[in-house]
Design goal:
single chain, 222 residues, mainly alpha, Arc Repressor Mutant, subunit A, transcription regulation, DNA-binding transcription factor activity, GntR_C, transcription
């Protein structure tokens, strides 16, 4: 659940994030402050405060005497980020396994059944939603606010890539198998196996992105 904005510039920052993640403000694009003020019906002061927040989050970059641009994520960024988030989400799975109650396991069972149904019916958009809910559930069960905060910050950066890994051949079923492996480890109360399975799941997402990039390049190469 998105936190309730506690000031106007927080609300503006939230609206700008939505525009970035929706692709309305594309990576590398210049942010015209006057146009944004008119579009969002706000003054320059809350906009500039919001821009500072997004620069700090890494979603924007600020260039002196030029202004703000939407950040661009490179292949090197992805290579650097995925091992880190895999490590962190792996730890979240470890802690969640140690702390999950019987009721928590039952709730996760329903989420995984939904995930399996979406995969069987090829409903990729719904699969993404179920996938996100499962990751969030593990992070919530870990009950570690520092872990949750850092994972949340890194996820924002990764969303700039805007890649749909499940469109890679075979990735949907592979992703499902990975999720089921994490859940099986949690049900067995094997925190080490849950951690390793979650790390594998995240690292294979990076592999899928490489496959997509290679396929796109091969189609462009005469």
């Amino acid at each position: 659940m998105r936190p309730v904005p506690n000031s106007l510039h927080d609300e503006v920052a939230s609206r700008l994030r939505d525009l970035i993640f929706a692709g309305d403000l594309r990576p590398g694009s210049f942010l015209d402050e006057a146009a944004l003020c008119e579009r969002l019906e706000i003054s320059r002061t809350p906009l500039r405060e919001a821009l500072k927040v997004l620069v700090a989050e890494g979603l924007l970059r600020h260039e002196p005497r030029r202004g703000c641009f939407v950040a661009e994520i490179t292949d090197k960024d992805l290579d650097d980020l995925f091992p880190v988030i895999a490590l962190l989400e792996g730890r979240a799975a470890h802690e969640a396994t140690n702390k999950a109650s019987g009721a928590d396991v039952a709730a996760l069972e329903l989420l995984h059944q939904r995930l399996q149904q979406c995969a069987a019916e090829g409903r990729i958009t719904d699969y993404y939603e179920a996938n996100y809910a499962i990751h969030e559930a593990f992070i919530t069960l870990a009950d570690n606010r520092w872990l949750a905060q850092v994972i949340g910050d890194l996820r924002k950066i990764l969303r700039l890539a805007r890649h749909q890994t499940l469109h890679a051949p075979g990735r949907l079923q592979q992703s499902l198998a990975e999720h089921l492996a994490v859940f099986a480890a949690l049900k067995a109360r094997d925190s080490e196996a849950a951690e390793e399975a979650m790390r594998t799941h995240l690292l294979r997402q990076r592999d899928a992105l490489r496959d997509i990039a290679r396929n796109q390049q091969s189609r462009l190469t005469p």
